[in-house]
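Hey, I'm writing a tutorial for new members on how sequence and structure tokens pair up, and I'd like a real worked example in the thread rather than a made-up one. If someone can provide the structure for the chain below, I'll link this post from the tutorial.
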Amino acid sequence: RCLSDWSSDVCSSDLETFDREGHRKTLFTKHGDTAGDTLTGLAWGPGGELWFTELLGDQTALWALTGRAQRLLWRGPGSFELMDVSPEGRVLLAAHQVRRGVLVQRAGEATARDLSILSGTQLLGLSADGRSILILESPGMDGGTALDRTYLRPTGGGPALNLSKGSP
């Protein structure tokens, strides 16, 4: 929910329960969750606890809620989603991995050519003559990390020219 616009300082996501009469109870509020996509999984755990996964940058945290008390169960690198919890407290997590790439297929060519560098290649531009592309290689979905690099690469294949650190 957002109070006035989509800026992160006024948006939040809530974990809520409803009883049989329809009365709502908010168990947890995540402030600054503009797109509502950082709370990724939800399941009932042992003893009536509500367990959920939360994306925290490039890590995932697994939490347990009992009433208003929140307890960290696990935290690790990567993007995981809680799918289920057994009565004994074993969890089923789904690992999510996104790979971005750039494929080029010229008119008359039978197959596309993969011009990706690693797993975070994003197309930024195509030269007017169609012979070169400007690409960003970034571990982040939209760039903005210290590991970002900008390249110029011929569409006919061949090595990429490393232009700079960061996004152009």
